[in-house]
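Private note to self, pasted from the team thread so I don't lose it. C-alpha coordinates:
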Protein backbone atom coordinates (compact mmCIF):
# COMPACT_ATOMS: atom_id res chain seq x y z
CA UNK A 1 0.00 0.00 0.00
CA UNK A 2 1.15 3.50 -0.73
CA UNK A 3 0.29 6.96 0.49
CA UNK A 4 -3.36 7.92 0.75
CA UNK A 5 -4.74 11.41 0.14
CA UNK A 6 -5.61 13.50 3.17
CA UNK A 7 -9.27 13.39 4.23
CA UNK A 8 -11.34 16.52 3.56
CA UNK A 9 -11.76 17.24 7.28
CA UNK A 10 -8.42 16.62 8.92
CA UNK A 11 -10.02 16.43 12.38
CA UNK A 12 -12.42 13.64 11.43
CA UNK A 13 -11.06 10.11 11.54
CA UNK A 14 -10.37 8.83 8.06
CA UNK A 15 -13.11 6.55 6.82
CA UNK A 16 -11.90 3.17 5.77
CA UNK A 17 -14.77 1.00 4.58
CA UNK A 18 -14.26 -1.57 1.82
CA UNK A 19 -15.31 0.85 -0.94
CA UNK A 20 -12.83 3.50 0.15
CA UNK A 21 -10.17 0.80 0.37
CA UNK A 22 -10.85 -0.18 -3.24
CA UNK A 23 -10.65 3.46 -4.28
CA UNK A 24 -7.36 3.99 -2.45
CA UNK A 25 -5.91 0.93 -4.17
CA UNK A 26 -7.15 2.07 -7.59
CA UNK A 27 -5.56 5.48 -7.09
CA UNK A 28 -2.32 4.04 -5.71
CA UNK A 29 -1.96 1.52 -8.54
CA UNK A 30 -2.62 4.19 -11.14
CA UNK A 31 -5.72 2.37 -12.42
CA UNK A 32 -7.47 5.72 -12.09
CA UNK A 33 -5.92 9.18 -11.91
CA UNK A 34 -9.07 10.54 -10.28
CA UNK A 35 -12.34 9.13 -9.01
CA UNK A 36 -15.74 9.98 -10.32
CA UNK A 37 -19.03 8.91 -8.74
CA UNK A 38 -22.68 9.73 -9.24
CA UNK A 39 -25.95 9.73 -7.33
CA UNK A 40 -28.62 8.32 -9.69
CA UNK A 41 -32.17 8.75 -8.34
CA UNK A 42 -35.20 7.82 -10.35
CA UNK A 43 -37.48 10.90 -10.26
CA UNK A 44 -40.54 8.86 -9.27
CA UNK A 45 -40.87 10.04 -5.68
CA UNK A 46 -39.22 12.07 -2.96
CA UNK A 47 -35.88 11.09 -1.49
CA UNK A 48 -35.85 9.34 1.87
CA UNK A 49 -33.28 8.72 4.56
CA UNK A 50 -32.03 5.63 2.70
CA UNK A 51 -31.08 7.84 -0.22
CA UNK A 52 -29.21 10.08 2.23
CA UNK A 53 -26.85 7.16 2.88
CA UNK A 54 -26.14 6.86 -0.85
CA UNK A 55 -25.76 10.66 -1.24
CA UNK A 56 -23.35 10.88 1.69
CA UNK A 57 -21.35 7.97 0.29
CA UNK A 58 -21.06 9.25 -3.28
CA UNK A 59 -20.54 12.92 -2.47
CA UNK A 60 -18.44 12.10 0.59
CA UNK A 61 -16.04 10.10 -1.60
CA UNK A 62 -15.93 13.02 -4.03
CA UNK A 63 -14.89 15.36 -1.21
CA UNK A 64 -12.40 13.00 0.41
CA UNK A 65 -10.62 12.03 -2.80
CA UNK A 66 -11.01 15.29 -4.68
CA UNK A 67 -13.25 13.66 -7.28
CA UNK A 68 -16.27 14.88 -9.20
CA UNK A 69 -19.79 13.70 -8.44
CA UNK A 70 -22.70 13.91 -10.86
CA UNK A 71 -26.36 14.08 -10.03
CA UNK A 72 -28.06 11.92 -12.64
CA UNK A 73 -31.77 11.47 -12.99
CA UNK A 74 -32.38 7.91 -13.98
CA UNK A 75 -35.43 8.80 -16.02
CA UNK A 76 -35.93 5.74 -18.23
CA UNK A 77 -39.37 4.81 -16.92
CA UNK A 78 -41.53 7.74 -18.10
CA UNK A 79 -44.88 6.57 -16.77
CA UNK A 80 -44.05 7.18 -13.11
CA UNK A 81 -41.80 10.21 -13.38
CA UNK A 82 -42.59 13.84 -12.69
CA UNK A 83 -40.69 17.20 -12.81
CA UNK A 84 -42.01 17.94 -9.29
CA UNK A 85 -39.77 15.14 -8.03
CA UNK A 86 -36.81 16.40 -10.04
CA UNK A 87 -36.96 19.79 -8.32
CA UNK A 88 -37.43 18.30 -4.85
CA UNK A 89 -34.47 15.95 -5.32
CA UNK A 90 -32.17 18.80 -6.33
CA UNK A 91 -33.27 20.78 -3.29
CA UNK A 92 -32.74 17.79 -0.99
CA UNK A 93 -29.20 17.07 -2.20
CA UNK A 94 -28.22 20.70 -1.64
CA UNK A 95 -29.93 20.75 1.74
CA UNK A 96 -27.81 17.77 2.76
CA UNK A 97 -24.82 19.96 2.04
CA UNK A 98 -23.61 18.71 -1.34
CA UNK A 99 -23.19 20.21 -4.79
CA UNK A 100 -22.91 18.18 -7.99
CA UNK A 101 -20.31 18.66 -10.68
CA UNK A 102 -22.82 18.12 -13.47
CA UNK A 103 -26.55 17.55 -13.63
CA UNK A 104 -27.40 14.84 -16.11
CA UNK A 105 -30.42 12.81 -17.17
CA UNK A 106 -30.29 9.29 -18.52
CA UNK A 107 -32.66 10.72 -21.14
CA UNK A 108 -29.84 13.01 -22.34
CA UNK A 109 -28.33 9.82 -23.69
CA UNK A 110 -31.34 8.29 -25.47
CA UNK A 111 -29.76 8.81 -28.89
CA UNK A 112 -26.49 7.20 -27.73
CA UNK A 113 -28.37 4.25 -26.25
CA UNK A 114 -30.21 3.82 -29.53
CA UNK A 115 -27.05 3.92 -31.64
CA UNK A 116 -25.39 1.53 -29.20
CA UNK A 117 -28.31 -0.86 -29.57
CA UNK A 118 -27.96 -0.69 -33.36
CA UNK A 119 -24.31 -1.61 -32.91
CA UNK A 120 -25.26 -4.61 -30.78
CA UNK A 121 -27.72 -5.70 -33.46
CA UNK A 122 -25.07 -5.30 -36.18
CA UNK A 123 -22.64 -7.32 -34.08
CA UNK A 124 -25.21 -10.11 -33.73
CA UNK A 125 -25.49 -9.39 -29.99
CA UNK A 126 -29.12 -8.29 -29.89
CA UNK A 127 -32.35 -9.31 -31.62
CA UNK A 128 -35.92 -8.21 -31.92
CA UNK A 129 -38.24 -10.67 -30.20
CA UNK A 130 -41.99 -10.94 -30.79
CA UNK A 131 -42.83 -13.11 -27.79
CA UNK A 132 -45.48 -11.68 -25.48
CA UNK A 133 -44.53 -10.82 -21.91
CA UNK A 134 -46.18 -14.03 -20.76
CA UNK A 135 -44.31 -16.14 -23.31
CA UNK A 136 -41.05 -14.50 -22.34
CA UNK A 137 -41.68 -15.62 -18.77
CA UNK A 138 -42.40 -19.17 -19.92
CA UNK A 139 -39.25 -19.34 -22.01
CA UNK A 140 -37.10 -17.87 -19.28
CA UNK A 141 -36.92 -21.02 -17.17
CA UNK A 142 -36.45 -20.99 -13.41
CA UNK A 143 -33.67 -20.94 -10.86
CA UNK A 144 -33.34 -24.72 -11.30
CA UNK A 145 -34.20 -25.08 -14.99
CA UNK A 146 -32.48 -23.46 -17.95
CA UNK A 147 -34.52 -21.27 -20.28
CA UNK A 148 -35.33 -21.98 -23.92
CA UNK A 149 -34.24 -19.96 -26.90
CA UNK A 150 -36.83 -17.61 -28.35
CA UNK A 151 -37.98 -18.67 -31.84
CA UNK A 152 -36.94 -15.14 -32.93
CA UNK A 153 -33.42 -15.49 -31.64
CA UNK A 154 -31.89 -16.34 -35.00
CA UNK A 155 -33.37 -13.55 -37.06
CA UNK A 156 -30.88 -12.10 -39.52
CA UNK A 157 -29.01 -8.92 -38.72
CA UNK A 158 -30.84 -7.24 -41.61
CA UNK A 159 -34.27 -8.21 -40.32
CA UNK A 160 -33.37 -7.15 -36.78
CA UNK A 161 -32.08 -3.78 -37.97
CA UNK A 162 -35.23 -3.21 -39.98
CA UNK A 163 -37.55 -4.17 -37.12
CA UNK A 164 -35.66 -2.21 -34.49
CA UNK A 165 -35.64 0.90 -36.70
CA UNK A 166 -39.38 0.51 -37.16
CA UNK A 167 -39.82 0.11 -33.38
CA UNK A 168 -38.03 3.42 -33.01
CA UNK A 169 -40.21 4.95 -35.78
CA UNK A 170 -43.27 4.14 -33.70
CA UNK A 171 -44.76 1.56 -36.08
CA UNK A 172 -45.71 -1.03 -33.45
CA UNK A 173 -48.04 -0.88 -30.46
CA UNK A 174 -46.90 -1.09 -26.83
CA UNK A 175 -45.60 -4.49 -25.88
CA UNK A 176 -45.62 -5.90 -29.44
CA UNK A 177 -41.87 -6.49 -29.56
CA UNK A 178 -38.74 -6.03 -27.49
CA UNK A 179 -35.10 -5.78 -28.30
CA UNK A 180 -33.20 -8.43 -26.35
CA UNK A 181 -29.53 -8.92 -25.67
CA UNK A 182 -28.35 -12.26 -27.06
CA UNK A 183 -26.44 -13.75 -24.16
CA UNK A 184 -27.24 -17.21 -22.79
CA UNK A 185 -30.66 -18.74 -22.11
CA UNK A 186 -28.99 -21.47 -20.03
CA UNK A 187 -27.06 -19.11 -17.77
CA UNK A 188 -27.28 -19.81 -14.06
CA UNK A 189 -27.88 -16.06 -13.68
CA UNK A 190 -31.40 -15.36 -14.88
CA UNK A 191 -30.47 -11.74 -15.61
CA UNK A 192 -28.29 -13.06 -18.45
CA UNK A 193 -31.06 -15.07 -20.15
CA UNK A 194 -31.45 -12.71 -23.08
CA UNK A 195 -32.74 -9.74 -21.06
CA UNK A 196 -34.87 -7.11 -22.79
CA UNK A 197 -32.92 -3.92 -23.37
CA UNK A 198 -35.67 -1.93 -25.15
CA UNK A 199 -39.42 -1.95 -24.89
CA UNK A 200 -42.12 -0.14 -26.83
CA UNK A 201 -44.00 2.46 -24.80
CA UNK A 202 -45.96 5.27 -26.38
CA UNK A 203 -45.78 7.51 -23.34
CA UNK A 204 -44.80 11.14 -23.01
CA UNK A 205 -41.51 11.60 -21.16
CA UNK A 206 -40.92 14.40 -18.65
CA UNK A 207 -37.67 15.43 -20.39
CA UNK A 208 -37.97 14.26 -24.02
CA UNK A 209 -41.70 14.68 -24.58
CA UNK A 210 -42.99 12.47 -27.40
CA UNK A 211 -39.66 12.03 -29.18
CA UNK A 212 -39.34 8.35 -28.27
CA UNK A 213 -41.83 5.51 -28.58
CA UNK A 214 -39.21 3.08 -27.23
CA UNK A 215 -37.41 3.26 -23.91
CA UNK A 216 -34.24 1.49 -22.75
CA UNK A 217 -34.37 -0.84 -19.76
CA UNK A 218 -32.63 0.14 -16.53
CA UNK A 219 -29.90 -2.51 -16.74
CA UNK A 220 -28.88 -1.36 -20.19
CA UNK A 221 -29.19 2.40 -19.65
CA UNK A 222 -27.57 2.62 -16.24
CA UNK A 223 -24.22 1.08 -17.08
CA UNK A 224 -23.92 2.99 -20.35
CA UNK A 225 -24.74 6.26 -18.55
CA UNK A 226 -21.96 5.48 -16.07
CA UNK A 227 -19.57 4.75 -18.93
CA UNK A 228 -20.44 7.98 -20.77
CA UNK A 229 -19.90 10.08 -17.66
CA UNK A 230 -16.57 8.44 -16.92
CA UNK A 231 -17.84 7.10 -13.60
CA UNK A 232 -15.00 5.09 -12.10
CA UNK A 233 -16.89 3.52 -9.19
CA UNK A 234 -20.61 2.98 -9.66
CA UNK A 235 -21.96 2.47 -6.15
CA UNK A 236 -25.33 0.82 -5.71
CA UNK A 237 -27.24 -1.29 -3.23
CA UNK A 238 -26.88 -5.04 -2.82
CA UNK A 239 -29.96 -6.06 -4.78
CA UNK A 240 -28.00 -5.19 -7.93
CA UNK A 241 -25.24 -7.70 -7.23
CA UNK A 242 -26.84 -10.29 -9.55
CA UNK A 243 -27.13 -7.62 -12.24
CA UNK A 244 -23.41 -6.91 -12.29
CA UNK A 245 -22.59 -9.52 -15.00
CA UNK A 246 -25.18 -7.85 -17.25
CA UNK A 247 -23.77 -4.42 -16.36
CA UNK A 248 -20.34 -5.60 -17.46
CA UNK A 249 -21.70 -7.36 -20.54
CA UNK A 250 -23.33 -4.16 -21.82
CA UNK A 251 -20.30 -2.01 -21.05
CA UNK A 252 -17.95 -4.45 -22.77
CA UNK A 253 -20.05 -5.23 -25.84
CA UNK A 254 -21.05 -1.65 -26.58
CA UNK A 255 -17.52 -0.52 -25.72
CA UNK A 256 -18.04 3.24 -25.81
CA UNK A 257 -14.37 3.87 -25.04
CA UNK A 258 -13.32 2.37 -28.39
CA UNK A 259 -16.38 3.57 -30.31
CA UNK A 260 -16.55 7.32 -29.82
CA UNK A 261 -18.71 7.65 -32.95
CA UNK A 262 -21.55 6.27 -30.82
CA UNK A 263 -21.56 9.32 -28.57
CA UNK A 264 -20.62 11.93 -31.16
CA UNK A 265 -24.14 13.48 -31.02
CA UNK A 266 -23.58 14.21 -27.33
CA UNK A 267 -20.25 15.85 -28.01
CA UNK A 268 -21.89 17.89 -30.78
CA UNK A 269 -24.55 18.99 -28.32
CA UNK A 270 -21.84 20.34 -26.01
CA UNK A 271 -21.71 17.59 -23.39
CA UNK A 272 -18.36 16.57 -22.00
CA UNK A 273 -18.01 12.80 -22.44
CA UNK A 274 -15.07 11.40 -20.49
CA UNK A 275 -15.97 7.84 -21.50
CA UNK A 276 -14.40 5.15 -19.34
CA UNK A 277 -15.07 1.62 -18.17
CA UNK A 278 -16.96 1.83 -14.86
CA UNK A 279 -16.93 -0.72 -12.06
CA UNK A 280 -20.10 -1.50 -10.11
CA UNK A 281 -19.70 -2.03 -6.37
CA UNK A 282 -22.60 -2.94 -4.11
CA UNK A 283 -23.20 -1.99 -0.49
CA UNK A 284 -26.03 -2.71 1.93
CA UNK A 285 -29.14 -0.56 2.09
CA UNK A 286 -30.01 1.51 5.10
CA UNK A 287 -33.02 0.05 6.90
CA UNK A 288 -34.55 1.66 9.98
CA UNK A 289 -37.25 0.20 12.20
CA UNK A 290 -40.56 1.92 13.08
CA UNK A 291 -40.78 3.31 9.55
CA UNK A 292 -41.31 2.30 5.94
CA UNK A 293 -38.94 3.35 3.21
CA UNK A 294 -40.15 2.13 -0.13
CA UNK A 295 -41.30 4.91 -2.40
CA UNK A 296 -44.42 2.92 -3.22
CA UNK A 297 -45.49 2.77 0.43
CA UNK A 298 -44.59 6.39 1.08
CA UNK A 299 -46.66 7.37 -1.95
CA UNK A 300 -49.61 5.35 -0.63
CA UNK A 301 -49.40 7.06 2.78
CA UNK A 302 -49.51 10.45 1.05
CA UNK A 303 -52.20 9.54 -1.51
CA UNK A 304 -54.47 7.93 1.06
CA UNK A 305 -54.23 10.98 3.31
CA UNK A 306 -52.69 9.00 6.17
CA UNK A 307 -50.06 11.74 6.45
CA UNK A 308 -50.34 15.39 5.52
CA UNK A 309 -48.03 15.29 2.48
CA UNK A 310 -44.53 14.35 1.34
CA UNK A 311 -43.10 16.72 3.93
CA UNK A 312 -45.16 15.42 6.85
CA UNK A 313 -42.68 15.67 9.73
CA UNK A 314 -43.29 12.03 10.66
CA UNK A 315 -42.12 10.68 7.30
CA UNK A 316 -38.57 9.45 6.66
CA UNK A 317 -38.47 11.59 3.50
CA UNK A 318 -35.76 14.23 3.48
CA UNK A 319 -38.51 16.84 3.07
CA UNK A 320 -40.28 15.42 6.12
CA UNK A 321 -37.13 15.21 8.22
CA UNK A 322 -36.24 18.76 7.24
CA UNK A 323 -39.68 20.06 8.15
CA UNK A 324 -39.51 18.27 11.48
CA UNK A 325 -36.27 20.13 12.14
CA UNK A 326 -33.69 17.38 11.67
CA UNK A 327 -30.41 19.12 10.82
CA UNK A 328 -28.67 17.84 7.69
CA UNK A 329 -25.54 17.33 9.82
CA UNK A 330 -27.46 14.72 11.84
CA UNK A 331 -28.08 12.68 8.69
CA UNK A 332 -24.42 12.94 7.71
CA UNK A 333 -23.52 11.79 11.22
CA UNK A 334 -25.94 8.87 10.89
CA UNK A 335 -24.37 7.87 7.58
CA UNK A 336 -20.92 7.90 9.21
CA UNK A 337 -22.12 5.98 12.22
CA UNK A 338 -23.91 3.30 10.22
CA UNK A 339 -20.94 2.98 7.90
CA UNK A 340 -20.62 1.09 4.63
CA UNK A 341 -20.55 -2.69 4.38
CA UNK A 342 -22.07 -5.61 2.53
CA UNK A 343 -23.95 -6.75 5.63
CA UNK A 344 -27.66 -6.00 5.62
CA UNK A 345 -28.76 -4.67 8.97
CA UNK A 346 -31.69 -2.97 10.63
CA UNK A 347 -30.83 0.27 12.40
CA UNK A 348 -32.82 1.16 15.51
CA UNK A 349 -34.83 4.37 15.20
CA UNK A 350 -33.15 5.56 18.41
CA UNK A 351 -29.82 5.71 16.55
CA UNK A 352 -31.29 8.35 14.24
CA UNK A 353 -32.78 10.21 17.20
CA UNK A 354 -29.43 10.05 18.97
CA UNK A 355 -27.71 11.65 15.96
CA UNK A 356 -30.32 14.40 15.86
CA UNK A 357 -30.02 15.05 19.60
CA UNK A 358 -26.25 15.13 19.49
CA UNK A 359 -26.15 17.52 16.55
CA UNK A 360 -28.81 19.83 17.94
CA UNK A 361 -27.35 19.87 21.43
CA UNK A 362 -24.18 21.55 20.28
CA UNK A 363 -25.77 23.62 17.49
CA UNK A 364 -28.86 25.14 19.07
CA UNK A 365 -29.58 27.79 21.69
CA UNK A 366 -31.81 27.28 24.71
CA UNK A 367 -35.14 28.96 25.26
CA UNK A 368 -38.00 28.66 27.76
CA UNK A 369 -41.44 27.35 26.85
CA UNK A 370 -44.36 25.77 28.66
CA UNK A 371 -46.50 23.37 26.65
CA UNK A 372 -49.06 22.27 29.23
CA UNK A 373 -49.54 25.47 31.23
CA UNK A 374 -50.55 25.87 34.88
CA UNK A 375 -50.63 29.32 36.50
CA UNK A 376 -48.18 30.00 39.34
CA UNK A 377 -48.59 33.29 41.22
CA UNK A 378 -45.88 34.72 43.48
CA UNK A 379 -47.79 36.48 46.22
CA UNK A 380 -44.95 38.34 47.94
CA UNK A 381 -44.02 40.45 44.93
CA UNK A 382 -46.10 43.56 44.18
CA UNK A 383 -48.61 43.02 41.37
CA UNK A 384 -47.22 44.81 38.35
CA UNK A 385 -43.64 43.96 39.39
CA UNK A 386 -41.52 43.30 36.29
CA UNK A 387 -37.87 42.36 35.84
CA UNK A 388 -35.61 41.33 33.08
CA UNK A 389 -33.35 38.36 33.89
CA UNK A 390 -30.19 37.49 32.02
CA UNK A 391 -30.01 33.89 30.79
CA UNK A 392 -27.13 32.28 29.00
CA UNK A 393 -28.17 30.81 25.65
CA UNK A 394 -26.12 27.63 25.92
CA UNK A 395 -24.85 25.86 29.03
CA UNK A 396 -21.71 24.52 27.35
CA UNK A 397 -20.83 27.21 24.84
CA UNK A 398 -20.46 30.87 25.81
CA UNK A 399 -20.31 31.85 22.13
CA UNK A 400 -24.09 31.59 22.03
CA UNK A 401 -24.17 34.68 24.29
CA UNK A 402 -26.94 35.76 26.61
CA UNK A 403 -30.47 37.06 26.38
CA UNK A 404 -32.97 38.90 28.53
CA UNK A 405 -35.99 36.97 29.77
CA UNK A 406 -38.95 38.92 31.23
CA UNK A 407 -40.02 37.87 34.72
CA UNK A 408 -43.14 38.89 36.65
CA UNK A 409 -45.20 37.52 39.57
CA UNK A 410 -47.62 35.61 37.31
CA UNK A 411 -46.00 32.69 35.58
CA UNK A 412 -46.87 29.64 33.54
CA UNK A 413 -45.28 26.40 34.68
CA UNK A 414 -45.70 22.85 33.30
CA UNK A 415 -48.76 21.17 34.77
CA UNK A 416 -46.76 17.99 35.38
CA UNK A 417 -44.27 19.92 37.55
CA UNK A 418 -46.92 20.26 40.26
CA UNK A 419 -48.65 17.39 42.05
CA UNK A 420 -51.23 17.71 44.73
CA UNK A 421 -50.76 14.11 45.84
CA UNK A 422 -47.22 13.31 44.75
CA UNK A 423 -45.88 9.78 44.38
CA UNK A 424 -42.76 8.89 46.34
CA UNK A 425 -39.65 10.41 44.80
CA UNK A 426 -41.44 13.37 43.16
CA UNK A 427 -39.00 16.26 43.60
CA UNK A 428 -40.90 19.12 42.01
CA UNK A 429 -43.64 21.35 43.43
CA UNK A 430 -46.15 19.99 45.98
CA UNK A 431 -48.47 21.71 48.47
CA UNK A 432 -46.28 23.14 51.24
CA UNK A 433 -43.12 22.14 49.36
CA UNK A 434 -40.31 24.09 47.73
CA UNK A 435 -38.83 24.10 44.25
CA UNK A 436 -36.31 26.27 42.41
CA UNK A 437 -37.63 28.38 39.56
CA UNK A 438 -34.91 28.30 36.98
CA UNK A 439 -32.85 31.53 37.12
CA UNK A 440 -35.11 33.11 39.77
CA UNK A 441 -34.90 31.49 43.22
CA UNK A 442 -36.77 29.14 45.52
CA UNK A 443 -40.56 29.30 45.82
CA UNK A 444 -42.80 27.60 48.36
CA UNK A 445 -46.35 26.55 47.53
CA UNK A 446 -48.76 28.02 50.09
CA UNK A 447 -52.10 27.56 48.42
CA UNK A 448 -53.74 25.54 45.69
CA UNK A 449 -56.72 27.01 43.84
CA UNK A 450 -59.11 24.49 42.29
CA UNK A 451 -62.10 24.50 40.03
CA UNK A 452 -63.88 21.28 40.98
CA UNK A 453 -61.20 18.60 40.80
CA UNK A 454 -58.91 20.62 38.53
CA UNK A 455 -56.03 22.65 39.91
CA UNK A 456 -56.15 26.04 38.18
CA UNK A 457 -53.52 27.98 40.09
CA UNK A 458 -50.77 27.51 42.66
CA UNK A 459 -49.91 30.45 44.91
CA UNK A 460 -46.35 30.67 46.19
CA UNK A 461 -43.94 32.87 48.10
CA UNK A 462 -40.49 33.55 46.75
CA UNK A 463 -37.65 33.34 49.29
CA UNK A 464 -35.92 36.70 48.63
CA UNK A 465 -32.58 35.41 50.01
CA UNK A 466 -32.37 32.77 47.26
CA UNK A 467 -32.55 35.12 44.29
CA UNK A 468 -29.87 34.45 41.70
CA UNK A 469 -26.63 36.24 42.56
CA UNK A 470 -27.27 36.38 46.32
CA UNK A 471 -25.32 34.21 48.81
CA UNK A 472 -28.51 32.27 49.64
CA UNK A 473 -28.92 31.24 46.00
CA UNK A 474 -26.94 28.08 46.74
CA UNK A 475 -29.50 26.78 49.19
CA UNK A 476 -30.31 23.22 48.19
CA UNK A 477 -33.72 22.06 47.02
CA UNK A 478 -34.30 18.87 45.11
CA UNK A 479 -36.07 20.14 42.00
CA UNK A 480 -35.68 22.93 39.45
CA UNK A 481 -38.52 23.78 37.09
CA UNK A 482 -38.86 26.15 34.15
CA UNK A 483 -41.44 28.87 33.60
CA UNK A 484 -42.45 31.77 31.38
CA UNK A 485 -43.93 35.10 32.43
CA UNK A 486 -47.67 35.04 31.79
CA UNK A 487 -47.80 38.73 30.95
CA UNK A 488 -45.01 38.47 28.39
CA UNK A 489 -45.13 34.96 26.96
CA UNK A 490 -46.47 34.45 23.46
CA UNK A 491 -49.03 31.78 22.73
CA UNK A 492 -47.72 29.18 20.33
CA UNK A 493 -48.96 26.14 18.45
CA UNK A 494 -46.70 23.24 19.37
CA UNK A 495 -46.77 20.00 17.39
CA UNK A 496 -45.52 17.04 19.35
CA UNK A 497 -44.32 14.43 16.91
CA UNK A 498 -43.48 10.85 17.62
CA UNK A 499 -42.77 7.73 15.58
CA UNK A 500 -45.23 7.17 12.75
CA UNK A 501 -45.61 3.47 13.50
CA UNK A 502 -46.07 1.80 16.86
CA UNK A 503 -44.34 -1.45 15.91
CA UNK A 504 -40.69 -1.95 14.90
CA UNK A 505 -41.59 -3.78 11.71
CA UNK A 506 -44.62 -2.15 10.08
CA UNK A 507 -43.72 -3.93 6.81
CA UNK A 508 -44.70 -7.33 8.18
CA UNK A 509 -47.87 -8.25 6.29
CA UNK A 510 -49.26 -10.80 8.70
CA UNK A 511 -52.85 -11.83 9.44
CA UNK A 512 -54.10 -9.73 6.57
CA UNK A 513 -52.68 -6.54 8.09
CA UNK A 514 -50.54 -3.99 6.29
CA UNK A 515 -48.40 -1.12 7.50
CA UNK A 516 -51.54 1.04 7.49
CA UNK A 517 -52.78 -0.96 10.48
CA UNK A 518 -49.69 -0.18 12.53
CA UNK A 519 -49.84 3.62 12.43
CA UNK A 520 -49.11 5.11 15.86
CA UNK A 521 -52.24 7.00 16.97
CA UNK A 522 -50.00 9.18 19.15
CA UNK A 523 -47.64 10.13 16.33
CA UNK A 524 -48.76 13.75 16.46
CA UNK A 525 -50.44 15.80 19.17
CA UNK A 526 -51.03 19.51 18.68
CA UNK A 527 -51.12 21.65 21.82
CA UNK A 528 -51.16 25.35 22.64
CA UNK A 529 -48.38 26.52 24.87
CA UNK A 530 -46.50 29.66 25.82
CA UNK A 531 -43.01 30.59 24.75
CA UNK A 532 -40.71 33.39 25.84
CA UNK A 533 -40.86 36.41 23.49
CA UNK A 534 -37.41 35.88 21.98
CA UNK A 535 -38.46 32.42 20.74
CA UNK A 536 -41.53 33.81 19.04
CA UNK A 537 -39.31 36.16 17.05
CA UNK A 538 -37.25 33.37 15.44
CA UNK A 539 -37.25 32.84 11.69
CA UNK A 540 -38.90 29.73 10.21
CA UNK A 541 -36.66 26.63 10.33
CA UNK A 542 -34.73 27.92 13.35
CA UNK A 543 -34.19 25.25 15.98
CA UNK A 544 -33.86 25.67 19.74
CA UNK A 545 -33.91 23.54 22.82
CA UNK A 546 -36.93 24.35 24.94
CA UNK A 547 -35.34 23.59 28.27
CA UNK A 548 -36.42 20.29 29.80
CA UNK A 549 -38.84 19.64 26.91
CA UNK A 550 -36.79 18.76 23.87
CA UNK A 551 -35.48 20.21 20.65
CA UNK A 552 -38.01 22.17 18.62
CA UNK A 553 -37.94 23.83 15.22
CA UNK A 554 -40.04 26.71 13.93
CA UNK A 555 -42.21 25.21 11.20
CA UNK A 556 -40.91 25.84 7.71
CA UNK A 557 -44.33 26.63 6.26
CA UNK A 558 -46.69 27.72 9.04
CA UNK A 559 -44.52 29.61 11.54
CA UNK A 560 -44.30 33.37 11.38
CA UNK A 561 -42.71 35.69 13.92
CA UNK A 562 -45.58 36.74 16.18
CA UNK A 563 -47.64 33.66 15.16
CA UNK A 564 -45.30 30.91 16.29
CA UNK A 565 -45.64 27.27 15.29
CA UNK A 566 -43.02 24.86 16.62
CA UNK A 567 -42.42 21.21 15.79
CA UNK A 568 -40.88 18.92 18.33
CA UNK A 569 -37.91 17.50 16.46
CA UNK A 570 -36.77 15.12 19.17
CA UNK A 571 -37.24 14.63 22.90
CA UNK A 572 -34.28 15.08 25.25
CA UNK A 573 -34.19 11.41 26.16
CA UNK A 574 -35.14 8.19 24.48
CA UNK A 575 -38.62 7.59 25.84
CA UNK A 576 -39.10 4.38 23.84
CA UNK A 577 -36.30 2.43 25.48
CA UNK A 578 -38.29 2.17 28.72
CA UNK A 579 -41.61 1.45 27.02
P1 LIG B 1 -37.03 2.68 -3.27
O1 LIG B 1 -36.68 1.23 -3.27
O2 LIG B 1 -37.18 3.28 -1.93
O3 LIG B 1 -38.16 3.00 -4.18
P2 LIG B 1 -35.02 3.11 -5.20
O4 LIG B 1 -33.85 2.25 -4.97
O5 LIG B 1 -35.96 2.70 -6.27
O6 LIG B 1 -35.75 3.40 -3.84
P3 LIG B 1 -33.65 5.15 -6.62
O7 LIG B 1 -34.18 6.49 -6.95
O8 LIG B 1 -33.50 4.17 -7.72
O9 LIG B 1 -34.59 4.58 -5.50
O10 LIG B 1 -32.32 5.25 -5.78
C1 LIG B 1 -31.26 6.12 -6.04
C2 LIG B 1 -30.04 5.59 -5.35
O11 LIG B 1 -30.25 5.54 -3.95
C3 LIG B 1 -29.70 4.19 -5.82
O12 LIG B 1 -28.31 4.12 -6.05
C4 LIG B 1 -30.13 3.34 -4.67
O13 LIG B 1 -29.35 2.17 -4.60
C5 LIG B 1 -29.91 4.26 -3.47
N1 LIG B 1 -30.79 3.88 -2.37
C6 LIG B 1 -32.13 3.77 -2.38
N2 LIG B 1 -32.60 3.34 -1.20
C7 LIG B 1 -31.51 3.17 -0.40
C8 LIG B 1 -31.33 2.75 0.96
N3 LIG B 1 -32.36 2.39 1.73
N4 LIG B 1 -30.07 2.71 1.45
C9 LIG B 1 -29.03 3.07 0.69
N5 LIG B 1 -29.13 3.49 -0.59
C10 LIG B 1 -30.35 3.54 -1.13
MG1 LIG C 1 -34.71 2.18 -8.17
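Design output:
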Amino acid sequence: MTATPAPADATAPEKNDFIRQIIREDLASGKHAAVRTRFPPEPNGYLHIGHAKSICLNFGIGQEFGGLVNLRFDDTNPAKEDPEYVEAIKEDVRWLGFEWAELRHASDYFEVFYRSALKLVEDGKAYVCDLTAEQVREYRGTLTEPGRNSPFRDRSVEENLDLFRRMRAGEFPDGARTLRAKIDMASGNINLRDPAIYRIKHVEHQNTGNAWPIYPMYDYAHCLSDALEGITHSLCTLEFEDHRPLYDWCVDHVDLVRNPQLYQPLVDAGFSVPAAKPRQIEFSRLNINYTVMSKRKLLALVDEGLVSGWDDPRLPTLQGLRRRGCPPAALRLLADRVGISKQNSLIDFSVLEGCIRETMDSANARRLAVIDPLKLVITNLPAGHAESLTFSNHPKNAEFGEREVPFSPELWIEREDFMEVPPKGFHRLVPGGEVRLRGVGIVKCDEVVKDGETVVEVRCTLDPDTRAGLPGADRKVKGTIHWVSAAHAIEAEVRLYDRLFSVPDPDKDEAGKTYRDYLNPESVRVVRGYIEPSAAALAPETSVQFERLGFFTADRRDHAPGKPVFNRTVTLRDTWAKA
